[in-house]
Amino acid sequence: MAIATGLSFAPFPSEVRQTSAIGAEIKLPPQMPIIDLDLLTASDHEVLRQALFENQVVVIRNQKGIDPTVIPKLAKIFDPSATDTHSAGKNAVSDPRNILSAYKAGRIPRAPQVGIIGSGKFQNYEGDHTLFHESPLSQETLEEGYTRPYRWHMDTPFYERLPGEVTILHSIQIPKVPDQKIKFPDGTEKTVAAGATAFFSGARAFDLLTTEEQEFALNTTVTYAPQAYEYIRHCKSSEDGLTIPTFGRETKPEDLSEWSWGQVAEHPMVWRNPMNPSRPFLQVHGCCVYKLTTRDPKTGNVSVINDVEKVRSIVYGFQKRIYAAENIYAHRWIEGDVVIFHNRGVMHSITGQLQSHAEGKRLLWQCTMSSQTPPQPFRAYPGVNDTGFVRV
Ligand SMILES: [Fe+2]
To answer: Does any domain span residue 1?
Structure first.
């Protein structure tokens, strides 16, 4: 019988985690400087799964030189049903109507599930930090070293393909730029590394709801906009990157790429964690939402909110209280890091004003594969849609 290698994990120190409920480091055994999947046993897999599904974001340090083909295999330890299709699509997406059309020239040929993302040059879910906010930071504020989250999201197009359980990032090059600061609505400031990837936990976001709001969330299904990223491609976000505060710039349905309702994403508002079924995760993308359907468990009555502006404002009301320094984990990249995050347990965003710096280049590999298993509702009420797509 294979003997476990001694691979282990340790949650980040409490001064790093604060109240984010996020973060652990995977410690590889000394004889394995670069992760070697062939040597891992079933019990090592369980340790990895426990580390991730309890802590939502894990890092393995010093993985410079890891073979890109290893990364999709590593992802499958957490999601055995992952397809070998990058969630942004099989081929390079080059449709200029889609703001995710990043992957043109951005895939590793030997490992097409792995994309290359960088600051400025490529556009994808992460986008260009300076372009998306309704009121961008002023030049003066930028020069003082402030930054913001760009757009909080899960890695998924909300159309045709299901979100992956995990995304894996590997830092090839990190910006050599001084630390920057995020200012929060309560006036506190958080120092973050330039180009940090920021995360918040859906479980923590759920905890911050009132009992009534939790009940509403548990009974609600979220329908996303048809071709969601085309739909919002002319829209601008709030300062915190959580929502779209104004209505009117949305692409008209007839101007979207061909679509059908059966391919439009629809998910419960609160998701179940694969290893912790008692912990609810509020997982909703505040910029791409379209419609809410809520069932009253007492009467069985179903109510629908399909005014997009109102839908956004309800979701924003639920999510905006997470936006505080102590609830956000901002990963300070070191070259060689492999970061695995639970795409169905956190929202994430890039941060960093890097364009004006000569040494501001940031290059990451990103592997996010569509899953064949849809996110499961935390509460399996009658009629809940757990198929991942609108039922037609
Ligand atoms: Fe992303």
So the answer is: no
Pull the structure tokens for residue 87: 């969630």
Task: Answer whether residue 2 is part of any domain.
Answer: no
Domain assignment present for 67: yes
CB 234 within 8 A of CB 302: no
CA of 284 to the centre of ligand 1 (A): 14
CA of 8 to the centre of ligand 1 (A): 27
* Distance in Å, CA 13 to ligand 1 centroid: 25
- Residue 357 burial class via C-beta count within 10 angstroms: exposed 0-12, middle 13-18, buried 19 and up: middle
C-alpha 153 to ligand 1 mean position (Å): 6
Ligand 1 centroid to Cα of residue 204, in Å, is 19
Region class of 158: left (phi > 0), else alpha (psi between -120 and 50), else beta: left
**CATH number (domain holding residue 64):** 3.60.130.10
Distance CA 181, CA 289 (A): 29
The confidence score (pLDDT) of residue 137 equals 80
Q: Tell me, what's the pLDDT at 2?
A: 57
The predicted pLDDT at position 54 comes to 97
Tell me how far apart the alpha carbons of residues 100 and 89 are, in angstroms, rounded to a whole number.
10
Instruction: Classify residue 3: in a domain, yes or no.
Output: no
CA 379 to chain centroid: 22
The Å distance, Cα 151 to ligand 1 centre, comes to 9
Q: 0.85 cut: is pTM over it?
A: yes
C-alpha 236/C-alpha 199 separation (Å) is 21
d(CA 145, CA 138): 11
In the reported structure, the alpha carbon of residue 386 is separated from the centroid of ligand 1 by a whole-number distance in angstroms of 23
The whole-number mean pLDDT for each consecutive block of 10 residues of the chain, a chain of 392 residues, reads: 81 98 97 96 96 98 97 97 81 52 63 78 47 77 87 95 97 91 96 96 98 98 97 95 96 94 98 95 98 96 98 98 98 97 97 77 90 96 94 94
303 CA from centroid of ligand 1 (Å): 32
Q: Which domain holds residue 344?
A: 8-389
User: How far away, in angstroms, is 366 Cα from ligand 1 center?
Assistant: 8
- Give distance in angstroms: CA of 154 to centre of ligand 1: 6
C-beta pairs of 248-253 under 8 Å, 24+ apart in sequence: 250/225, 250/308, 251/97, 251/227, 253/226
Query: Helix, strand, or coil here: 82?
Result: strand
Domain count, the chain: 1
